[in-house]
Amino acid sequence: MDYVDGVLRIESFLAITLGIIVLFLGRRLTQVSSFLKEFSIPEPVSGGILVSVLFAIIHYVTQVNVEFDLATRDLLLVYFFTTIGINASLKDLFKGGKPLLILLAITICYMLVQNLTGIGVATLLDQPAVVGMLSGSVSLIGGHGTAIAWSPKIADMFDLNTAMEIGIASATFGLILASLMGGPIAKYLINKHNLTPSNDQKMDVGSLQEAPEPKITSYDFLDAMLAIHVCIIIGAILNEAISGFGLELPLFVTCLFAGILISNLIPASYPRLTGTRWPSRKPAIALIADMSLGAFLAMSLMSMQLWALVDLAGPIFMILGAQFIVAIAVAIFIVFPLMGRTYDAAVVCSGFGGISLGSTPTAMANMSAVTQKYGNSHQAFIIVPLVCAFFIDLANALIIPYFLKTLG
């Protein structure tokens, strides 16, 4: 830890240590706050925002800037997206059927609309167009992970030093808006059209919540780590190859692709040195995903320089207000009719609220709240997670570079 010219620099080891503390702080806050529980605010988000506010107060009182070495955080991002690729199964594409394809098509089109909305409002407010991108699919549909991953590149391309802060702020407030919109949308549609579940279905989410914690041995953990490292090595080689053709992609994207390719092209029974099957969808992979994402978000949010956002607060809120209105309109007037105007469609709309402005956990939380009150929807719990956790990242990996190239 060094202090030079009014800047307190915290090196990587202390940064990740503080990130773990922030994660536990967020957990304690969630345990005692009914608001955080009700709106499913992620623990690293609540803890990270609180600590970033404390650092902002320190800045205004002492004029000291706190900066972190976030090299370890960036590695955690690669770990997380690699686990997403390892868990992706192309066979699941056929389980959702026609509704899955419809929701996927709507979501991809909406991603284009979301970026155009952000760029349009930013332009009207005399802000750089790329600010609208940062408050578009980069941070809203993309979430904190995508916003943090793309912000450094956007900052370099457009000389926008506040890119990280804008992206994280948009993702954070989008998460809150997503939590607020899903339930009311479903309630409105269910009451207006007098909808009921097709039959008495057992709860998807309830059974999962009541399941016992899986047992994970040290070898299970190391097996999963080995698989992740193999995918990262292949992803790094793939990234270099793609760079040779003039296409620059973040490392996490090619590692995601590497995980998908290995999990779906190599037979599960293929012999491995570990003597075990490829660890796709095993508890150890899920554990590493949770650990890496939680610490990654905690470190990212605690390192926000909120004082740099003061001049941009107005434009960000106006852009998010427009995005909120567009998302509600798309859910009610496009998603619901095209999904069949059924009870399942109403539950999907609540999940779409999570997709459009938040994240996969937000979408699941929205649907869980609705189904616990009105009845379950197996269809919604099949297709929404597939669109959220698999297709969005792939589509965004292509849409974001296209828009950035156009704006550049």
Written description of the protein model:
Residues 202-211 have low confidence and may be disordered. The two termini are 37 Å apart. This protein has 16 helices and three strands. The protein has one domain. The chain is 74% helix and 3% strand. With 408 residues, it is an all-alpha fold.
Blueprint of the fold:
Blueprint: E1 2-4, E2 7-10, H1 12-32, H2 34-38, H3 43-62, E3 65-68, H4 71-87, H5 93-124, H6 129-134, H7 143-158, H8 163-193, H9 204-210, H10 218-243, H11 251-265, H12 283-302, H13 313-338, H14 343-357, H15 360-374, H16 378-407
Helix pairs in contact: 1-3, 1-12, 3-12, 4-10, 4-11, 4-12, 5-13, 5-16, 7-8, 8-13, 8-14, 8-15, 10-11, 13-14, 14-15, 14-16, 15-16
